[in-house]
Amino acid sequence: MLRACAGQLVNVMRGSFGVSRLGAIGAIRNSSHSTETDSEFDARYEAYFNRADIDGWEARKAMNDLLGMDLIPEPKIVIAALKACRRLNDYALAIRWLEGVGDSCGDKKKEIWPYMLQEIRPTLNELGMETPEELGYDQPELALKSVFEM
Q1: Buried-most residue among 91, 98, 141, 144 (CB within 10 A)?
Q2: Which UniProt keywords apply (predicted)?
Q3: Angle CA(120)–CA(96)–CA(133) in degrees, nearest 5?
Q4: Backbone phi, psi, residue 113, to 5°
Q5: Chain mean pLDDT for the chain
Q6: Domain spanning 38-135, CATH class
Q7: pTM of the predicted model, to two decimals?
Q8: In 3D, which of 71, 28, 26, 65 has the Cα closest to residue 49?
Q9: Residue 80: per-residue pLDDT
């Protein structure tokens, strides 16, 4: 009974405010997507990370968005993000960012990751940072030997 009354109330409210469900769906379907070139995309994220007033939440959000996309960030974006981590004084975030970029290489990690390290190495040296592999984070600390390798 309550559900029927609530449904009637919603229908009355829609009619009085002029909101129609089909109009919203049509607007969504007819909206156009922006077309952004790769260089514009890279420049947008690089400028975002180079902002002087970026905070930890904004940096994490942008990194999470980038790692959620089906792409590997360009080295200049990775460098800008590492410098943002340095400005935020967040070493752990920088290491997690490098781990995420390495994971986004997927099954081509042996080909792409050495190139990425070659490109970002001067920045890592300038900032005094190490890679996850240099810190030993690529190997589990307390892992047991596999029964198939015994």
Answers
A1: 98
A2: Heme, Iron, Membrane, Metal-binding, Mitochondrion, Mitochondrion inner membrane, Phosphoprotein, Transit peptide, Ubl conjugation
A3: 65
A4: -60, -40
A5: 84
A6: mainly alpha
A7: 0.72
A8: 65
A9: 97
